[in-house]
Specification:
The structure holds 2 protein chains of 2 kinds.
Chain A (H helix, E strand, L loop, with lengths): L2 H22 L4 H6 L1 H11 L4 E2 L2 E2 L10 E4 L5 H11 L40 H14 L6 E6 L6 H12 L5 E7 L2 E2 L2 E2 H5 L4 H8 L2 E5 L5 H14 L6 E6 L22 H8 L10
Parallel strand pairs in A: 3-4, 4-5, 5-9, 8-9
Antiparallel strand pairs in A: 1-2, 6-7
Helix pairs in contact in A: 1-3, 1-4, 1-10, 3-4, 3-9, 5-6
Chain B lengths: L8 E3 H15 L3 E5 L9 H6 L4 E3 L4 H12 L4 E7 H4 L4 H10 L5 E5 L17 H6 L5 E3 L4 H12 L5 E4 L4 E3 L14 E4 L4 E5 L3 H14 L4 E5 L2 E3 L3 H11 L2 E8 L4 H12 L4 E6 L9 H7 L4 H15 L1
Parallel strand pairs in B: 2-3, 2-4, 4-5, 5-7, 6-7, 10-11, 10-13, 13-14
Antiparallel strand pairs in B: 1-8, 6-12, 9-11
The chains are: A alpha/beta, B alpha/beta.
Chain lengths: 285, 318
């Protein structure tokens, strides 16, 4: 898909995010907006997905297709929007986000049977282990598709992440491409102040990963180019780690660059101000 | 009292290893994971015959649980193995979110459960695992009683779709169940029919219950002994049928009295058939170093403790 088309989808996804969070006055807009370009590029350009008439068809086992796992489950709004816009479930269902009896739980889950989701996430640090297991299953099944996994930068403070980081190179899981959303923010403030991750590139390289940066994680052309590069690096005996530099809240000026919009919903006026900045390219739900 | 004899003693963990070897040969989707305790879990035969289906995780239990959940996506049936303490308490949140809540077909197989791992002491002697695991919605909890039953249970859980906690142990104990038994999840096993007291026992305590039954018989008391190998889902029908006949209950388990088999049985009695119940279990404490026999004696888990509990229960009927 062309870059300008992907950008249009990203704009609609950002509208969906702020509208969903506004609709229930709860949720996490900041990280969702920052990772919008990555998820749109993955689902609408990079990943091979089981589809019928350009609409995604969900199968839990995901044989013969690429898989995506969201480890930092609190940015569920961006994933829900991308999945709905890709055809996994009706876009109208976004109106139920975080409300009683919804399949769109606050954090992603398989429990309500929402198509597109393969594991619950929310309690941090677990997603990369799960993605690794799925990657091993693909290897056992002679399925040469890729497994993608997104984590947060604050999430790197979880010990389990480093258990998985040790396992992957040891077992040469080279069909895994992982991302860290480097937005530099977490709930209590800037990551360097809360708990400094220091040099993540050096850490992952020391663990035996192939590490690369996408410096402009909110520039669609740069993301698309970076994803192609990451795929090229996979399959050569090492897992691939992409350090994705994003801005928390990207696309809505007053939400950008601050941890204050990590988990806060906009009020009516703020919603209007946000939507003024985002083109309604595909029609609101 | 039905006679139970044995010619051989073995550890239940070896029953697990034997079951895994059978599964390795029979079911190509079965994979095994272990966190640096291959010898203790008796996985050598499985690994030798199926090296590509075994994943050494190192001392990283949280990662092992996540890997197992991921392996189910793609149709694998992962058996995640380590000591019971590290298979449950250490990784409770990983099991809760990535396995139970996500409804994944993961088999958590835990050796060295309870006091009877012995000399390693309380850091390794988990007595809370049944409680933690049974509280997870959708989790099946199984605690077989000897080598043969553990082997049969291991094979049976591969055919069951859903998360399972399989608990077994380290000490060598008599092999007294049928080597060709068909293990039915959730179906209690009638060890001995009796009329005066129902003894519901699980795991290593089943053999103790049989010995207690013989002692009680010598004193003119007829004990009904039922092996509750599956604590969840609990065979309520077998429990209610038995207590309707005997009118009082002893529960016996190598676990804290809080949250184990005893509490599961008590819920059934409170709701459906009030009857006196006595617990044979660890009285809300940690364990300590010692030989298995010494620990069973000190913490009140021996046949004589079951005998005493049975007499108390019978007394309370009056």
């Amino acid at each position: 898909m062309e870059i300008d088309q992907l950008e249009k989808i990203a704009s609609q996804v950002r509208r969906d995010i702020v509208r969903m969070v506004h609709g229930c006055q709860s949720g996490h807009p900041g990280g969702s907006l920052g990772c919008t370009d990555l998820l749109v590029a993955l689902y609408f350009h990079q990943m091979t997905l089981n589809e019928q008439d350009e609409e995604a068809v969900f199968d839990m086992d995901g044989a013969g297709e690429d898989l995506f796992f969201l480890s930092n489950g609190h940015i569920s709004p961006v994933w829900y929007s991308v999945l709905a816009r890709k055809g996994y479930f009706p876009v109208s269902e976004m109106a139920t986000f975080r409300k009683l009896d919804s399949r769109l739980q606050g954090h992603p889950t398989t429990h309500e049977g929402l198509p597109g989701i393969r594991i619950a996430s929310g309690s941090l640090g677990q997603g990369m282990s799960v993605a690794l297991g799925a990657a091993l299953a693909k290897r056992l099944n002679d399925d040469d598709h890729k497994v993608y996994c997104l984590m947060g930068d604050g999430e790197q403070q979880e010990g389990q992440v480093w258990e998985a980081a040790t396992f992957a190179p040891h077992h040469k899981v080279d069909n895994l491409i992982a991302f860290i959303d480097l937005n530099g923010q977490q709930i209590d403030g800037p990551t360097v102040k809360v708990m400094d991750n220091r040099d993540l590139r050096a850490k992952y390289e020391a663990f035996g990963w192939e590490v690369m940066d996408i410096e402009q994680g909110n520039d669609m052309a740069a993301v698309v180019k970076g994803l192609a590069e990451a795929k090229g690096k996979s399959g050569h005996g090492k897992p691939v780690m992409v350090l994705l530099h994003t801005g928390m809240g990207y696309g809505v000026d007053f939400m950008m660059g601050s941890h204050k919009w990590h988990g806060v919903a906009p009020n009516d006026e703020q919603l209007a101000a946000a939507l003024d900045q985002l083109e309604e390219s595909l029609g609101d739900y | 009292m039905k006679k139970y004899t044995f010619t051989e003693k073995k550890d239940t963990r070896s029953g697990f290893g034997a079951g895994m070897q059978v599964l390795g040969q029979q079911n190509p989707n079965v994979v095994a994971l272990c966190a640096d305790l291959v010898g203790s879990l008796k996985l050598d035969a499985f690994i030798k015959e199926n090296p590509e289906r075994f994943f050494q995780c190192g001392i990283s239990e949280a990662n092992m649980i996540g890997l197992s959940a991921g392996l189910t996506i793609g149709g694998k049936i992962p058996f995640a193995t380590t000591f019971a303490n590290f298979a449950t308490g250490r990784v409770y949140d990983q099991i809760r979110q990535s396995v139970a809540y996500s409804g994944k077909n993961v088999k958590i197989c835990a050796s060295h459960a309870g006091l009877t791992l012995g000399e390693d002491g309380a850091t390794h002697q988990i007595l809370e695992d049944i409680g933690m695991m049974k509280m997870l919605p959708g989790m099946t909890v199984i605690n077989p009683c000897d080598y043969n039953q553990t082997k049969a249970a291991t094979i049976a859980i591969a055919d069951y779709e859903g998360p399972v906690y399989l608990r077994f142990g380290r000490p060598v104990i008599p092999i007294f169940t049928d080597p060709d038994q068909k293990f039915e999840i959730g179906k209690a096993w009638m060890v001995n029919e009796g009329t005066d007291v129902s003894i519901f026992a699980t795991g290593h305590l089943v053999w103790e219950a049989i010995q207690a039954g013989e002692q009680l018989e010598a004193e003119g008391i007829s004990a009904e002994i039922i092996n509750i190998h599956t604590i969840k889902p609990l065979d309520e029908e077998a429990i209610l049928k038995s207590v309707a006949k005997t009118g009082c209950v002893v529960t016996a388990e190598e676990h804290n009295r809080l949250g184990g088999l005893g509490d599961s049985v008590a819920q059934v009695l409170v709701k459906k058939h009030l009857a006196p119940q006595e617990y044979v279990a660890v009285d809300d404490s940690f364990g300590e170093s010692g030989t298995p026999a010494q620990l069973m004696e000190k913490y009140g888990l021996s046949a004589k403790d079951i005998v005493a509990a049975a007499k108390r229960a019978i007394e309370r009927k009056k």
